[in-house]
Write a structure and sequence with these properties.
The protein is mainly alpha-helical and about 190 residues long. It has six helices and no strands. The longest helix is centred in the C-terminal third of the chain and has 33 residues.
């Protein structure tokens, strides 16, 4: 999409689009449509969206999977927390800050003299943090399961939050294993 958006200058592209729309329309102004379509387009009924947005997408590389999982779990816990269902834990934002700091440590560990050992140490911390966050999310999921009627959430909204937590909790061990294998080259 980005490449196409810069393919022609906007004014030239506008001429092409206008010509194509006129040819495909019912042609009341020009005496019939000329694209040999089965049925002419009635442009009053169409609302095309031609918006092109350059998205910032990152691929799920292993060192990003752990913080993404942690972020999803913490945000779900925050949603539950705001509804008055609170399990004993530090402020959820603290966990996000710690995980972000560990990500920054991972990036900066590459510049150290003993980079491999430093990255492994940071990975151990991230794995430990991920486990703590997973345990908190699990407790919050169970709280929501038992007490969702006491909140302002609908049953569907509560179920969606619980499913989001469950999905991430199911995938977290695989993300940890993948990060570990990438870091150490072993399967453990």
């Amino acid at each position: 999409m980005q490449r196409y958006s810069q393919w022609l200058p906007e004014a030239d592209m506008r001429k092409v689009i206008d010509t194509l729309l006129a040819a495909a329309s019912d042609g009341t102004a020009q005496g019939g449509q000329s694209l040999d379509l089965t049925e002419a387009l009635h442009l009053e009924a169409y609302f095309p969206d031609t918006t092109c947005v350059k998205l910032h997408i990152h691929f799920p590389v292993d060192w990003v999977l752990l913080p993404d999982g942690a972020r999803t779990l913490i945000k779900a816990a925050i949603l539950i927390h705001k509804r008055g269902l609170q399990a004993r834990m530090e402020e959820p934002e603290v966990f996000l800050n710690r995980m972000n700091r560990l990500c920054m440590k991972t990036i900066h560990a590459r510049r150290k003299k003993d980079a491999k050992r430093a990255r492994k140490g940071v990975l151990r911390e991230r794995k430990k943090r991920s486990g703590i966050i997973a345990a908190h999310a699990e407790r919050h999921r169970e709280l929501l399961r038992e007490h969702w009627r006491e909140t302002d959430l609908t049953e569907g909204a509560a179920r969606q939050i619980m499913e989001r937590i469950t999905t991430v909790l199911e995938r977290l061990p695989q993300a940890i294993r993948q990060a570990h294998e990438r870091s150490s080259g072993s399967g453990r």
